[in-house]
Specification:
By secondary structure, the chain is mostly loops. Helices cover about 10% and strands about 0% of the residues. It is built from two helices and no strands. The chain is elongated. About 5% of the residues have low confidence. It holds the Pfam family Pentapeptide. Keywords: Signal. InterPro entries: 5peptide_repeat, Pentapeptide-BTB/POZ_domain.
Length: about 240
């Protein structure tokens, strides 16, 4: 560009700015990390660690790549928000409303989602080791390819949830509830706790997965699958 005449360079810059303005609907948009929490705020790639943001309204906000480690988002509104690739290590989201939010590829070891609502939310390829989903409303949530080692779903509602290709090693689903289908297609279920669950309508389950998992005589399996001889598992 430096070899172009000054007038030509000026014209090119004007054209680039005009194009950016058109793409953003009339405004040149950029994340502003100093903006206060509000619906639709753009905090993409911002650092927001160790903050108290309880009850804040982040509906449809852009929090992609945002570092929210150890931040409290208790009872916050995250409905339809985009948190793709955000960092939520040891963050608190108890009671948060996150229906249809995007949590794809988040890094969220020991994140707390107790009693949160994340119905139809997406957790594709999320890092959720030791996550606590106790009492969460997760109907229709997609955990495809998620890392869920030692995650707990006690009393969580998982109707229509998808765990295809997820790592459920030592995860505890035994206290969860759901009606109808739940997808375990090619999920890794090493010592996954499924005691007492009615999985008769589950899809994707294979005998090899059942042999690795931990159920008991009250676990109901899909037609064609049988209870392994090593059930129930020893207490971990």
């Amino acid at each position: 560009m430096k070899d172009l005449p000054r007038i030509a360079r000026s014209g090119l810059m004007v054209a680039l700015v005009a194009a950016a303005t058109a793409v953003s609907g009339g405004h040149v948009m950029a994340a502003d990390c100093h903006d206060t929490p509000n619906a639709g705020v753009d905090w993409s790639e911002c650092t927001k660690k160790n903050l108290m943001l309880e009850g804040s309204d982040f509906e449809k906000a852009s929090l992609a790549g945002t570092d929210l480690s150890q931040t409290s988002l208790k009872n916050a509104n995250l409905a339809s928000a985009n948190l793709e690739k955000a960092t939520l290590i040891r963050a608190w989201l108890e009671g948060a409303k996150a229906d249809e939010a995007r949590f794809d590829k988040i890094e969220a070891y020991r994140v707390v989602f107790q009693n949160a609502s994340a119905q139809r939310a997406s957790f594709i390829s999320a890092e959720l080791q030791r996550a606590d989903f106790t009492g969460a409303q997760l109907s229709g949530a997609n955990f495809e390819k998620a890392e869920l080692g030692r995650a707990t779903f006690e009393t969580a509602v998982l109707t229509g949830a998808r765990f295809a290709l997820a790592n459920l090693s030592r995860a505890d689903l035994s206290g969860a509830s759901f009606e109808g289908s739940i997808d375990f297609d090619r999920a890794f279920m090493f010592l996954t706790r499924i005691e007492g669950l009615d999985l008769s309508a589950a899809t994707g389950l294979q005998q090899s997965q059942i042999e690795l998992a931990c159920g008991d005589t009250s676990t109901k399996l899909p037609s064609g699958l049988t209870m392994p001889k090593n059930w129930p598992c020893a207490t971990d």
